[in-house]
Design brief:
alpha+beta; Protein Transport Mog1p, Chain A; seven-stranded antiparallel beta sheet; four-stranded antiparallel beta sheet; 11 strands; 26% helix
């Protein structure tokens, strides 16, 4: 399992009890505890990218704090329009129930938050932060009974977020990302992190992939 890689233009450095992660490709920095693991994914889908995941354990198990980049489509004439569509998607999911929807400031930027619970026993807190032509999304996910145990750490990670100047990747970096885009283990990991599959399904499919490999 890859914990850190160079598929993106990024760097990390230590600061007073935490590690600062900078992603110059996607234009943001964020701090996470020294005791947590960084897993840099850089997995591109049709209209979003899963950039990096932070978790407490080297194993792919909760708690997760994951950073996504969403492309703003032409149909979204505002940040509110984007968030409304995201909220509707959750509302129409029979396996999910929204328990909170609110406004907040992240990096002095007016942002929005949604908290929902899922049938599989997971609880998720999604924070959306607008920028030019994109929306940053930071998701904290944990088992429902353990959600409060790591909430303060997740909040610290989220509120350390900053938008920085982005750097366009070189052709070589683009080629490296293309080679890893269809990695089935990465895709499986992302689906689990987003709550699309249960832990049992993740372990079963991971075992099949590892055996076939």
């Amino acid at each position: 399992m890859m914990l850190s890689c160079s598929r993106t233009t990024s760097k990390t450095y230590h600061t007073n009890g935490s590690i600062n992660y900078e992603n110059q490709k996607y234009g943001f920095s964020i701090k996470y505890p020294k005791s947590w693991i960084k897993d840099e994914l850089d997995q591109r889908e049709q209209d979003y990218a899963t950039v990096v995941e932070f978790r407490l354990s080297i194993e792919n198990s909760p708690p997760f704090v994951t950073v996504y980049i969403n492309d703003v489509e032409p149909k979204h004439n505002s940040f509110q329009s984007f968030v409304d569509d995201e909220k509707k998607e959750v509302q129409h999911d029979p396996k999910s129930s929204i328990i909170e929807f609110s406004n907040l400031l992240v990096a002095n930027v007016p942002s929005m938050r949604l908290i929902d619970v899922e049938e599989e026993g997971y609880k998720r807190m999604v924070t959306w932060i607008p920028s030019v032509n994109r929306v940053y999304e930071i998701s904290y996910s944990n088992k429902q009974e353990q959600f409060l145990d790591h909430l303060s750490v997740a909040e610290d990670i989220i509120h350390s977020f900053k938008i920085i100047d982005a750097i366009v990747p070189t052709n070589n970096e683009q080629s490296q990302r293309a080679n890893s885009r269809d990695d089935p283990l990465l895709i499986l990991k992302i689906r689990f992190a987003k709550g699309e599959i249960t832990e049992e399904e993740y372990e079963r499919m991971r075992s099949i992939l590892m055996h076939d490999g």
